[in-house]
Specification:
The structure is a homodimer of 248-residue chains.
Chain A lengths: L15 H14 L11 H8 L3 H13 L3 E2 L7 E2 L10 H6 L2 H29 L2 H16 L4 H17 L4 H9 L2 H10 L6 H16 L3 H23 L11
Antiparallel strand pairs in A: 1-2
The structure holds a DNA duplex (30 and 30 nucleotides).
DNA sequence: ATGTCCAACTTGTCCTATAAGCTGATGACA
DNA sequence: TGTCATCAGCTTATAGGACAAGTTGGACAT
């Protein structure tokens, strides 16, 4: 559940504007389109053989991801990569595996900063209903260790549940955006994560700290969990040399 | 600089779809539109006297903010408020001052979790060029204490500069989204913040800790800064009773 | 009562036309 | 020669009409 706009199981062919936007983004990333020389509506219409309406919606999608700037009369311009909306699952899906790998590390860094504190806050204010739901999700995960995809769905829901305890829409949104972690990491590792059983044990530790209303314990347990998470991630996809001088 | 898609000073009349989207969002928030009964393209077209193209783009905007779900054949449905994209300046602009006030608190809570650590990380790896820019921004702020709007622009840039030192696109994006803080807080407080001079002093403290490459000092200075920031925010707009039982 | 099928509704895409805004080049004028 | 107003051409914004494709709920037959 909580699948957002995704369809149940079939991949569901995306709409034309989304497909074209994907193509264009890949071309921009590959350097095929130099900055500031983005194609116009007519260019897109001609090149992809789509109507101007579709070309137009394509540009609107790219604009909503802060990939381009579009204004009446002015030519469309590509914005600096540093300002793109890397929290959007759509954009992530279009990026090459190499960049996604980097983003996974950066996402993890963010989670390390936020989630231990969220767990501590949750421990101070968690309700019995939330604890029940967490318990249920742990059980479901334990039963899904053979199905990594489904497991990661529940995993995400478990972390979201803790985040929700903070009753903060901004933090909610940030963590919710991390839902692409599952899909992306699957794309990068291309294999079932090894440590699902250990993850379940770690989730249980977090849960027990919450039951005990122990902020420090919850924080520590979450920190351990994330740290283990990270090492399996690294182990699966090999070492990535950190990019240098990417900005500007 | 770094103004994104905003025009220099004039408010620049927004496009028709944006205006209509604003209207609809306000109506949804006010409860005028019951959940799951969003107007169709034709409804919008008729009610607002716009073409179907505009009605269509309106729905696409709302969809990109996760306010509604739209799919072929199915009627447009309003999504749960908890899942809206509260990181979007567009949405913030359309929300009533009361909710914006709450969001400002939640945003601040997020910053308290992230920024002190960002400052500590920056202290460990900051370059001389970044220090130069920070120095320049402090000077500019000192000269702009009479112009709160311009001051807050540079203020945001100062914090972004520190964030950038972490070389993390995810964190960048999160902090970048906080750029609506300036506009929103101005809408809420409706007055020039009192403590600009103190803010400059605090920025200088952070800067000096960075110059000294002192992570702990930078973390502490940033924490003090945010805490002071928060009290002036609270003082200006009076106490807000925290909403209860908002979810679901 | 149950399952099939269809009609009505809704979004997706296309075509054509016009309005509105920007940019750069042309050319008048000093 | 230098400066500035003007305008042609390009671009996006909006409009209207048409058809394709997908969904839903009710009519209808079993």
């Amino acid at each position: 559940m909580q699948r957002g706009q995704e369809s149940p199981d079939a991949v569901k062919v995306r709409t034309l504007p989304v497909q074209v936007a994907a193509h264009l983004t890949r071309r921009i990333v590959s350097g095929d389109i130099e900055d500031g020389r983005a194609p116009s509506e007519l260019d897109i219409s001609r090149e992809f053989g789509v109507s101007r309406v579709v070309a137009r919606e394509t540009l609107k999608i790219l604009a909503s991801l802060d990939i381009v700037d579009v204004a009446q009369g002015r030519r469309v311009v590509v914005r600096p990569r540093a300002e793109w909306d890397y929290l959007s699952p759509l954009l992530i899906e279009w990026l090459p595996a190499e960049i996604v790998g980097e983003l996974l590390q950066e996402l993890h860094q963010m989670r390390v900063l936020l989630e231990p504190e969220l767990a501590a806050m949750a421990a101070a204010s968690v309700t019995d209903e939330t604890l029940d739901r967490l318990r249920g999700e742990i059980d479901r995960m334990a039963a899904l260790e053979g199905d990594p995809n489904a497991y990661l769905e529940v995993d995400h829901e478990f972390h979201m549940e803790i985040c929700r305890a903070a009753d903060n829409r901004i933090l909610d949104r940030i963590m919710y955006s991390a839902r692409w972690l599952g899909t992306a990491s699957r794309r990068v590792t291309n294999e079932a994560p090894a440590g699902l059983r250990r993850a379940t044990a770690e989730h249980t530790e977090i849960y027990e700290a919450l039951v005990a209303r122990d902020p420090a314990g919850a924080r520590a347990a979450m920190r351990r969990h994330l740290s283990n998470n990270y090492s399996t991630l690294l182990a699966e996809k090999g070492k990535h040399t950190k990019r240098a001088a990417r900005r500007r």
